[in-house]
Amino acid sequence: MLSTVIVLLLAGATAGNAAEPSATAEQLRFFESAVRPLLVEHCLKCHGPEKQWANLRVDSRAALLQGGDSGPAIVPGKPDESRLLRAVQQLDESLKMPPEGEKLTDRQIADLARWIAWGAPFPPSDAPRARDRNPEHWSFQPPVKGAIPAVRQADWPANPVDHFIVAKLESAGLSPAARADRRTLIRRVTFDLWGLPPTPEEVAEFLEDNRPDAYERLIDRLLASPAYGERWGRHWLDVARYADSNGLDENVAHGNAWRYRDYVVASWNADKPYDRFVREQLAGDLLPWTDDSQRRELLIATGFLAIGPKVLAEVDEAKMEMDIIDEQIDTVGRALLGLTLGCARCHDHKFDPIDMTDYYGLAGIFKSTRTMEHFKKVARWYENVLPSPETTALQTAHAAQIAWKQQEIRALVAQADAQLSASSPPESNAPEDRERRYPAETQAALKKLRQELADLEKNPPDLPSAMGVAEGRPADVAIHLRGNPLKLGAVVPRRTPAALRGPEPPAFSADQSGRRELADWLTDPQHPLTSRVLVNRIWRWHFGRGLVPSVDNFGLLGEAPTHPELLDWLASEFVADGWSIKALHRLLLTSATYQQSSQLPSGDEQALRVDPENRWFGRAPVRRLEAEQFRDALLAVSGQLDDSLGGSLLTVKNRAYFFDHTSKDLTDYSSRRRSLYLPVVRNNVYDLFQLLDFPDPAIPNGDRATTTVAPQALLLLNSEFVLDCAERLAQRVLQEAVDDACRVDRLYHVAYSRAATPAEVHAAATFLRRFEESWPAVDRSQAWTALCQVILAANEFLYVN
């Protein structure tokens, strides 16, 4: 019996540290989507609130720590010492869990181990159920554009944004920091909008521009460059969980994913209205078009729904389909709404007022959408053929080849039949009977022609295509009890979550999937979340943290906004400005808030005491370069950056495997193009990116961590890439200046956007002299390479003030 197995396994276990871990929102979401369904499906029947065999319950953290008659079930932080995990791994032939039926999948076991390693975070047992909670949460109500607050420091605000900021600062007894100097501003805003450092020439031009609108002109110049779309398109690709491979069990190439990436970059550069951008990604194939070019763009846009990871070797086809639908619902929820809708697949959401009927109402929309060609092992995702003259020519040529081969077969059969009729009357009119009487050489020729025809039909030309979706057969979905596709409840008509107030719920047509209606509902000006979530994302990337710090979670587990009135004002203004993201950039970047210094006045300790985390935005944040910024900046200052736009750098064909279980990933990262274009391989992300906190490309992520660990320093000291950039930078400054003092000054201008101080010039000269004295046999350029590496490894290069 299951209880006997558990009791024996738990004998002698120790509880370890039972302190409740400080769980992140992502960890709790993971528990709700991966761990709780596992416990519900396999354990609660015998170890839940109604029945406790061997006095063991598994429906709370306390119960798991207490365990049953023989001790605790888990050791927080130590999966290898947790008997529950050993049981599901079935390491002992005589002690297995479950004792009957199929063993848990490798992924389920890995999820359980991951959760225990985190300390087994468990939502509070006294948390109210969503259905018992009043859904009048702030984020479920439409934004209200309130009045701009009056402030005492009336001469400080540069635009309405600043009134909200300084009003909050004044209420806390604080004052904003002074304005940053112009060198700091151009470096800050250039990294913000381009992800690149300004050149010394660009800095000098800005410093010499005495026009009153020089800063505004700088912003307009940066926004007009293709580099803007490459920088800000990358932010959206984080949210869209972009990758050039599938990951999971079959890590095959998304050979055409780059088309979606280039679509995103082009859309941001064109300042495509955000409501249009959303509609295209959810229902581009259903929108009207005027020509082939626009049609291609709309089909490529639907890659947003198709590009997620999939268990392509899943043997249960019904489960695979629902897993893909679940991933799409979770992505739409987190990316566009800031809600964890996927938590309601197996049970009503434990926190937000989203229940299973809401989930399966949305599931019907994606069930009615074609995402896969087929679900047979190994499954194939669907791709849209892209209309173009090249496509038409290839299709026409292929059809002509087939028609010609069919004509050859008909001609040969007619000739053979005529010869047969002339020699003797037919014994039978059946084609197969006649063909048996053909001469052997005719039969062989006919067999060869038919094989050639079959090969042509089975091998159509490789047409230009893109990952995306199309319409499937419209269907509503039944509730899957405990998420199990084999245990069905009532059928739920397609619908949107009732708790979200504002726009009227859409009426779904019977002959389409409903994606277009969903997209229109999401982009209704009165929608409570769509504009708020996007505005908050833009704010986060300019100011280091969101007005809602939990940028991907606006639900009850998310953090409350620090400036709710400003968030609503910005969301309303964003919609009124035609959903223009560039207009939003201009508004935020021209604010006095953005132009503050990161340094507080000497002796001003009150701000650090009252607001140590800078939640009131009383100073500019000091931010480390992200992985892509760091790599691109190294290439830029060393004169190597290739600014070519678009295209693919994959070295494998579409659907081919990146690597198998015995060989190394041979993906090439040697290109000097911007980091945006390097392949993103799920399960094996480029090591430089991993070291600098590149997000998990399997899940939507609108935020990035900033860690400080020893391998990052080792990267700067030992990486061949960093050393090569230092060498190229040394060659550059040696060529661009005539003496060592000027070269050091040029080095500082290139790397730090400022002049070197006399003390820094002296220190560099001393370093070079001692280097040459210590290693007299080395070439002098090597001393300069070492100096350049020091400059590139310093915080002033790695951080933006």
TrEMBL record:
<feature type="domain" description="Cytochrome c">
    <location>
        <begin position="22"/>
        <end position="120"/>
    </location>
</feature>
<keyword id="KW-0479">Metal-binding</keyword>
<protein>
    <submittedName>
        <fullName>DUF1549 domain-containing protein</fullName>
    </submittedName>
</protein>
<dbReference type="GO" id="GO:0046872">
    <property type="term" value="F:metal ion binding"/>
</dbReference>
<dbReference type="InterPro" id="IPR011444">
    <property type="entry name" value="DUF1549"/>
</dbReference>
<keyword id="KW-0732">Signal</keyword>
<dbReference type="InterPro" id="IPR022655">
    <property type="entry name" value="DUF1553"/>
</dbReference>
<keyword id="KW-0408">Iron</keyword>
<keyword id="KW-0349">Heme</keyword>
<dbReference type="InterPro" id="IPR009056">
    <property type="entry name" value="Cyt_c-like_dom"/>
</dbReference>
<dbReference type="InterPro" id="IPR011429">
    <property type="entry name" value="Cyt_c_Planctomycete-type"/>
</dbReference>
<dbReference type="Pfam" id="PF07583">
    <property type="entry name" value="PSCyt2"/>
</dbReference>
<feature type="signal peptide">
    <location>
        <begin position="1"/>
        <end position="18"/>
    </location>
</feature>
<feature type="region of interest" description="Disordered">
    <location>
        <begin position="416"/>
        <end position="438"/>
    </location>
</feature>
<dbReference type="GO" id="GO:0020037">
    <property type="term" value="F:heme binding"/>
</dbReference>
<dbReference type="InterPro" id="IPR036909">
    <property type="entry name" value="Cyt_c-like_dom_sf"/>
</dbReference>
<dbReference type="GO" id="GO:0009055">
    <property type="term" value="F:electron transfer activity"/>
</dbReference>
<dbReference type="Pfam" id="PF07635">
    <property type="entry name" value="PSCyt1"/>
</dbReference>
<dbReference type="Pfam" id="PF07587">
    <property type="entry name" value="PSD1"/>
</dbReference>
